[in-house]
Specification:
Elements (H helix, E strand, L loop, with lengths): L12 E3 L22 E4 L1 H4 L1 H6 L3 H9 L5 E9 L9 E4 L7 E2 L4 E6 L10 E3 L12 E4 L2 E4 L12 E3 L5 E6 L4 E3 L10 E8 L4 E2 L8 E2 L5 E4 L2 E4 L5 E2 L7 E2 L12 E4 L2
Parallel strand pairs: 11-20
Antiparallel strand pairs: 1-2, 2-3, 3-13, 4-12, 5-14, 6-11, 6-13, 7-10, 7-12, 8-9, 15-18, 16-17, 18-19
Length: 262
C-alpha cells in the first residue's frame, strides 16, 4: 500500500508511490519486490537487525569527532531505487525537514550497492552547506508547507557522488543534494540515517515531518571504550500521549569505507 508520509513511527511503513511502478489503471507493472520505493522511518528502532546494525562504537567515535554531544537518530530508511523506475529526488537540504535551533542535522547514507550516474547516485553542490539554510518545511495554522519557494539551481552546479558498495556518504544538513532517476537495469540500494544533537539546541516545534520530544543520549568513554547510551526518543502524533521508543544508536563497524562530502 502506498504511503505519502508519517509523523510518528509506531510501525515500519512501506512506500510504493513511484509513478513508473503503476500502469494507467493503477496496477503494478512488475512484481511487488521490485516496486517498493523505500521502507521507513523507524528501522533503527523497530527491526532487531537494523537496530543492531545501527549501534556501534565506530559511529559513536565518528559523531563525537563531528562535535556531537548527545546525538539521536531521528529517522532511518532503506531506499531501493529500483531499476528503471527509481524516481528522482529533487534538490533539498536535510535541515529543511529535521530542524533544530541551532541546526544540527547530519545525513548518513550507506551505499549497499555501487552508486553511479546511471543508476541514480547522489549529486551535490560543493560548498553549498556554507551558505546556510534556504527554506524550511513547517506545520502551522495554514497547514504543512515550505515557508518560501524553492530557489532555482543550475544543473552545472552539481557534481556526482559515485561510490562503491560499503561507502558511507556523510551529508551536512545544509548541503544541497539530489538524485536522478535510475535509468539502468540495476538497483541502487542504500540505508539512510539522520542524526540530530539533543544538547545545546532545541527541536523546532513547527517541524512538520517528525514531531519529537527527546531526552538523554550521550557519548561516553568508559574504561577507554566508547559507547552510546540509551536514548529514549519520544515521537508523538496530534493528541497522542508521548511514547518512549527503543534505544537510538548508530551504524555498526561493518562499514567498509567512510566517504564524506561535508
Amino acid at each position: 500500500m502506498a504511503k505519502s508520509g508519517i509523523l510518528s513511527s509506531k510501525q515500519i511503513e512501506l512506500y510504493t508511490s513511484q509513478e513508473k511502478a503503476f500502469d494507467e489503471d493503477g496496477k503494478l507493472k512488475q512484481p511487488k519486490q521490485v516496486s517498493i520505493n523505500k521502507v521507513g522511518h523507524a528501522l533503527h528502532e523497530l527491526d532487531p537487525v537494523f537496530k543492531g546494525f545501527s549501534c556501534s562504537e565506530t559511529f559513536a567515535r565518528m559523531l563525537s569527532s563531528l562535535n556531537y554531544k548527545r546525538p539521536a537518530v531521528v529517522q532511518s530508511m532503506y531506499i531501493f531505487k529500483q531499476p528503471g523506475i527509481g524516481g528522482e529526488v529533487v534538490p533539498h537540504q536535510d535541515n529543511s525537514f529535521l530542524y533544530t535551533d541551532p541546526p544540527t542535522c547530519t545525513g548518513l547514507w550507506l551505499a549497499l550497492e555501487d552508486a553511479t550516474v546511471v543508476n541514480g547516485c547522489l549529486w551535490a553542490i560543493p560548498g553549498s552547506h556554507k551558505n546556510g539554510l534556504v527554506r524550511r518545511f513547517i506545520r502551522d495554522d495554514a497547514g504543512v508547507h515550505f515557508d518560501r519557494p524553492s530557489p532555482s539551481y543550475a544543473s552545472t552546479d552539481f557534481v556526482p557522488i559515485e561510490v562503491k558498495a560499503g561507502s558511507l556518504v556523510v551529508i551536512h544538513g545544509d548541503l544541497i543534494h539530489q538524485s536522478f532517476e535510475n535509468q539502468s537495469p540495476n538497483s541502487r540500494h542504500a540505508y539512510s540515517l539522520h542524526v540530530v544533537d539533543t544538547e545545546g539546541c532545541n527541536w523546532a516545534s513547527d517541524n512538520c515531518w517528525l514531531r519529537l520530544h527527546y531526552s538523554r543520549c550521550a557519548l561516553n568513554e568508559t574504561g577507554g571504550r566508547w559507547r552510546v547510551d540509551t536514548c529514549p526518543v519520544r515521537r508523538v502524533e496530534d493528541q497522542e500521549k508521548q511514547r518512549p521508543t527503543a534505544d537510538n544508536c548508530f551504524l555498526s563497524s561493518l562499514l567498509a569505507l567512510f566517504f564524506s562530502v561535508v
